[in-house]
Write a structure and sequence with these properties.
By secondary structure, the chain is α+β, with helices and mostly antiparallel strands. It has a single domain, classed as Molybdopterin cofactor biosynthesis C (MoaC) domain (Alpha-Beta Plaits, 2-Layer Sandwich), CATH 3.30.70. 29% of the residues lie in helices and 31% in strands. It is built from four helices and six strands; from the N terminus they run βαββααββαβ. The strands form two sheets. A four-stranded antiparallel sheet has the order 4-5-1-6, covered by helices on one side. A two-stranded antiparallel sheet has the order 2-3. α2 packs antiparallel against α4. The radius of gyration is 18 Å and the shape is elongated. The chain starts with 28 loop residues before the first strand and ends with a strand.
């Protein structure tokens, strides 16, 4: 039976100081990641949004959130200190009701590079969800954002 290697943090050096991971020797591969978040509305707010075609006083909720999520994915390295600046090749943000009062925000990010795009997908999903909240907060402060998580990643 082989011994399992103890997991270690990748963003600290031998002296336990923070550092950016060196990806210089890694091969360029096609990579993608998917993240999601749930925006929960009071049922009356969800019904009102549907009745108004997903428009709030600030404008079109879904379209604005998709744009915000895409912009966030491209700027992740400006928000998360040790993320590499990446030229994102694909960012698909989709937002759909999955129940009477829950919107699912999905972000799929892809790139051909030496590092993955998990943080970019998570950033896209979270900022898109925050944008939905911002667009709708005049209707209720009972809106919640839940279950932000990485759904999966692929290295080809």
């Amino acid at each position: 039976m082989a011994l399992k290697k103890k997991p270690t943090l990748s963003h600290v050096d031998a002296a336990n100081r923070p550092r950016m991971v060196d990806v210089g020797a890694k091969a360029v591969t096609a990579r993608s990641a998917e993240a999601r978040a749930i925006v929960r509305f009071p049922i009356a707010v969800a019904d009102a949004l549907r009745a108004d075609g997903m428009r709030a006083k600030k404008g079109p909720v879904i379209d604005t959130a998709i744009i915000a999520g895409t912009l966030a994915a491209k700027r992740t390295h400006e928000l998360i200190p040790f993320c590499h600046p990446l030229a994102i090749e694909r960012c698909d943000v989709s937002i759909d009701f999955v129940s009477a009062n829950e919107l699912e925000v999905r972000a799929v990010v892809g790139i051909s590079h030496k590092t993955g795009v998990e943080m970019e997908a998570l950033t896209a999903a979270s900022v898109a969800a925050l944008t939905v909240y911002d667009m709708c907060k005049a209707l209720s402060h009972e809106i919640t954002i839940a279950d932000l998580r990485l759904k999966g990643k692929v290295i080809l």
